[in-house]
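Worked Example 4.2. Consider the chain below.
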Amino acid sequence: MSAPAAKVSKKELTSNQNEALETSEKEQQEAIERIDEVQSEIDKLNEQASAEILKVEQNYNQLRQPFFQKRSEWIAKIPDFWVTTLVSHPQMSSLLGEEDEEALHHLTRIEVIEFEDVKSGYRIDFYFDENPYFENKVISKEFHLEEGGDLASKATEIHWKSGKDLTRRPNQILIKGGRKRFLEEPDSFFTWFSDHIDAGADELGEVIKDDIWLNPLQYYLISDLDNEEVIGEDGDEEEAFEESDGDGEASEEGNNGEGNEVEDRGENTGQND
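Applying the procedure from the previous section yields the following structure tokens:
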């Protein structure tokens, strides 16, 4: 017979459980410390990568400048290039009223200037010819990082000509009981220049910098495609109309032919009688 198993006291069992728990907690604590050390190394690499990426961005930003300049020179040869481009852009078009478009017909050039430290901000310059709306030759809006790291903006003050301030015009006038009442002022693209409430949420600046400025031609050509489609539809309608006229003439000729044949038959019948 085998020897009976030694009995383990309750005190010893509790002690063993406590030791196992302490060992597990130590292992977990050590694992956490090691994870933190590894994470610190990863963070260092991420910071190094950000610095290297920034250098690359700055380098390529300089390399792009001559091409942007050359592109602007060619764009200057196309009348209304920029207003056509802005009106054709899906997000911009929703912000442009009729008078905004009239004012933007005098827009000759757009330039986006990224600061030397790309992360610190950028400026968008709009160049205008002499126009009936404002005195400015250049209107700019700038986005920059403040010391606290928050994004802020500032812009050129627009010097509107008398009665031409597009940001202060009433939407319409209602005449009721012999009295005139001005309704709420309409939104205008030009109100964007004076809006500095939340620069970090300014999507329009990002759209112009990262989309329109990088490839304006794709939006300019949308207008040409739309015009071609309209011309094509008009041509189809004219062709259908001409075919319809042709069928009508053929039908009339057919009816006239049948009528003559009936008359001929009548005459022949009379002669036979």
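Confidence is low (pLDDT under 50) at residues 181-185, 248-273. The beta strands are 107-114, 121-128, 138-145, 151-155, 173-176, 179-182. Compare this with Example 4.1 before moving on.
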